[in-house]
Fold this sequence. Notes:
The protein is an alpha+beta fold. The protein has helices spanning 15-34, 48-51, 58-61, 82-93, 134-150, 163-171, 180-188, 192-201, 207-216, 223-233, 238-252, 315-320, 339-350; strands spanning 38-39, 45-47, 64-67, 74-77, 99-108, 120-129, 157-161, 220-221, 259-262, 277-281, 290-294, 308-314, 328-334, 355-358, 369-378, 381-386. It has 3 domains: 1-156 and 282-326, BirA Bifunctional Protein, domain 2 (2-Layer Sandwich), CATH 3.30.930.10; 157-265, no CATH class; 328-386. A 9-stranded mixed beta sheet has the order 1-5-6-12-11-10-7-9-8, sandwiched between helices. Strands 14-13-15-16 form a 4-stranded mixed beta sheet, with helices on one face. Strands 2-4-3 form a 3-stranded antiparallel beta sheet. It is elongated.
Amino acid sequence: MSNWLLPESLADILPAEARRIEELRRKLLDLYRTYGFELVMPPLVEYLESLQAVSGTKLNLRTNKLVDQLSGRTMGVRADMTPQVARVDAHLLNREGVTRLCYCGPVLHARPTGLMADRELLQIGAEVFGCAGVEADIEIIRLALASVAAAGVQGASLDLNFPGIGQALINQDPALVPHSADIFDLLSTKDMPGIQALGASVAGSNPAVIEHLLVLTSLYGEVNTTLDAARKKLPALPEIVSALDGLEVLVAALPGETLAMDLADMAGSYGYHTGAVFSVYAPGWHDALVRGGRYDGVGKVYGRSRPATGFSLDLRKLSGGLQPATATQAIRAPWGLDESLLAAISALRESGKIVIQMFPDQPQTQDEFIFDRELVLESDQWQLRAISA
């Protein structure tokens, strides 16, 4: 038997990569703290009713299920931490005013989301609760861009969208409303023949609505051009006008950033977003590095409806697109229990140095470290000596 084989789309993380992922985790959580975000740690599993409280979304299909041996109830392994953090804000903290929360932990998908996707992610993110104004959206977008910059990502660009525009179009035709999820998938892939076929297959569907959905697939590219075209080509429904106005405010608040807009891109959304959404892309990654947006009212299912906006990213994917991790310099020390040797080693370690004692008559192999110095005994004193290349 191949006992070392892992299930499909799951992978071990080896030392150099694991170190870099951990360094990224610390760096980003420290960054979020400078913005005033407080760290929370929801459990990996919850009762299924809580994890899937936001019903009718793709999140439900991505949740792995198991039986709690204590209660007999069905539990789920989280596929996304955002609803959990919304539960913490709404039910446990129950604060008035604005709350900023951040988090980091593993999530598991029942199926990979794409051909090159893993099923296990190390999700890190930040959420703002209690602010319905555009100010929270601006802060979250800036923090998302600062996150990839802190990781060393070059050439990041921001894509903006407002799924409510597509939903407003669908809501104009009651016959199409039950097919919203399928239409969103077709819009995301810009499958115009598929949209036409769906319209033809749904009895009583409104051809004018189908035509506007087809128009939506062409509304992408440079932000100002896309906004102008949307105002001209889409019906002036109050929801659409408000959405376009909101996107215009966001664009004006992000001068100097590389921006694009795709009003048909619904990919990556779990279906609970209610306002502007965004994705961060960068050269070298085949998919979005960061996804986020506004999701007002999710906390209602946990007892209190709150305005909310935030983002998340997968640290494993982020790390995988960076340059290979380099080995760390370390100090080689002989094995021994002499008090002066142990004191010298402890002092070096307390100062942040990596000191590796060499076991006698044992080969030492590691990819993580390069010995550039060694601890030697000279004139009854333990001293550092450079090791020539």
